[in-house]
Design a protein that fits this description.
two-stranded antiparallel ribbon, 10 helices, 2 strands, elongated
């Protein structure tokens, strides 16, 4: 603010660069508030994908399994399957890494081991139960792409694990036959749906399984 020569009139001079209300509104509008980005948790995403993949592969087998359904069930983008596992077969390979744990049979006398193996065979009747890689393998056996994964990630490791428990002569072959008996029970009870092999006959079936497995695992063979 300046005075004129007479000291009477006031002359107001704006020397600074002020901003109008519109200027401030423009600034606010030009900087919209962005929502907070949801942090990515790769470990949680992998866990979710694995859980969804187990359920889908067990339900349909490898060939019919849908990666879109797996991703949707896991709550993520299908592209993350490629990021973490490379492809559908890579995801299947990761799932089949989970070989059936036969460690509880360690140290059991032959009669008790056979009883436990017979129970495992009879337990293949319920395809809606907990995740079972052997059930997944049986349902996926028609896929050429899946066969190599099944053999290297499940079949051979299971035979070796069981052979180590059996010991003695021809342990690998004996383990392979036992694995075939267990797999065959699932095929007969679920895939073929043979009435003679239904759960209604568990008592008789277990007796026959025990007899057959005892013959296979006999130390004299």
């Amino acid at each position: 603010m300046e005075l004129d020569g007479a000291g009477c009139n006031q002359v107001i001079t704006v020397t600074g660069k002020g901003k109008s209300t519109g200027d401030y509104l423009d600034i606010e509008l030009s900087k919209p508030k962005m929502p907070d980005a949801k942090p990515r948790n790769p470990s949680a995403t992998r866990d979710a994908l694995m859980g969804a993949a187990r359920a889908e592969f067990q339900r349909t087998g490898y060939e019919a399994a849908s990666t879109r359904k797996i991703a949707s069930a896991a709550g993520c983008n299908p592209a993350l399957i490629s990021r973490y596992y490379g492809s559908k077969i890579g995801l299947f390979e990761a799932v089949m890494e989970e070989c059936i744990d036969l460690a509880p049979l360690q140290g059991l006398p032959l009669p008790e081991m056979v009883e436990a193996l017979a129970d495992i065979a009879l337990g293949k009747a319920d395809p809606t139960g907990g995740f079972d890689p052997l059930v997944v393998a049986i349902k996926s056996s028609g896929s050429v792409e899946a066969q190599d994964v099944i053999r290297t990630k499940l079949g051979n490791p299971m035979v070796k694990q069981l052979a180590a428990l059996i010991g003695g002569n021809n342990s690998d072959q004996k383990a392979g036959v036992i694995l075939s008996i267990i797999s065959g029970m699932f095929v007969g009870r679920v895939s073929v749906d043979a009435e003679a092999l239904s759960a209604d006959h568990d008592s008789a079936l277990k007796e026959l399984l025990v007899h057959a497995m005892t013959a296979v695992l006999s130390p004299d063979r």
